[in-house]
Amino acid sequence: MKVAAELRSLFSGWHAPGVVVAAILFTYLQWQGLSQLRDFASEGKNLPSCLKVSDFYSVHLTSFYLPTALDDDADPREKAMRYKQFCDHIPGPGKVIFTVDLMEDDARAQSVQLSLLRYDRDGHLALVKLLPPNLHPHGVLTLETPIAEAGRYLLKVAFGDAKTQDDIIEMPISVEP
Questions:
Q1: Are 102 and 108 in contact, with CB atoms under 8 Å apart?
Q2: pLDDT per residue over 110-148, tens digit each?
């Protein structure tokens, strides 16, 4: 009762136009915040990692990128600190470590293959690097490779015998010039 009386006294001096202006201001601020959040979520270039799925499997991709200019003979510990995290948009040529986390425990009990392919000018795929099929009981696959050229790539995760498209997760990778 006391709280209701205090609220009535607090808002008793407000007129209808003031309430409308306050509601519009509140709605506008909420819309701006949501708009910025949507922009951030849709901009793959700035996301450090991402989730990829098929009908049966899901994986979490994190790409660690070291620009060619920073790939020197420095101490390995110092060099490891130079890597930056990305999702599927790599900012340029350099050394990339693709790390794929298997989200389902069932996937860890079967062989999984990881391959990186590059699209040529005609749209055909050529193998860049292959991690052969193997069991990954800890659920982590890592493929390290130098990427010398900008362009379109495809990171492919194949589960088991990969008899159907549902047993394969294909992740387009873009390497900027």
A1: yes
A2: 999 999 999 999 999 999 999 999 999 999 999 999 999
Q: Any idea which residue has 């292959």 for tokens?
A: 130
- pLDDT tens digits, 8-52: 665 565 555 555 444 454 554 555 444 444 444 444 444 545 999
State how far the Cα of 117 lies from the Cα of 110, in Å rounded to an integer: 23
Please, are residues 63 and 89 in contact by the beta-carbon 8 Å criterion? no
**Structural tokens at position 104:** 């389902």
120 CA to centre of own chain: 24
- The number of helix segments (H) and strand segments (E) in the chain equals 3, 10
Q: Does residue 147 contact residue 91 with C-beta atoms inside 8 Å?
A: no
Identify the CATH assignment for 45-175 out of 2.40.50.320, 1.10.20.140, 2.60.40.1930, 1.20.58.1610: 2.60.40.1930
- For 68-96, the pLDDT digits (tens) are 777 667 666 676 678 889 999 999 999 99
Could you give the count of Cα atoms lying within 13 Å of 25 in the half-sphere of its Cβ?
6
Are 115 and 130 in contact by the 8 Å Cβ rule? The answer is yes
CA-closest candidate to residue 176, choices 72, 69, 91, 62? 91
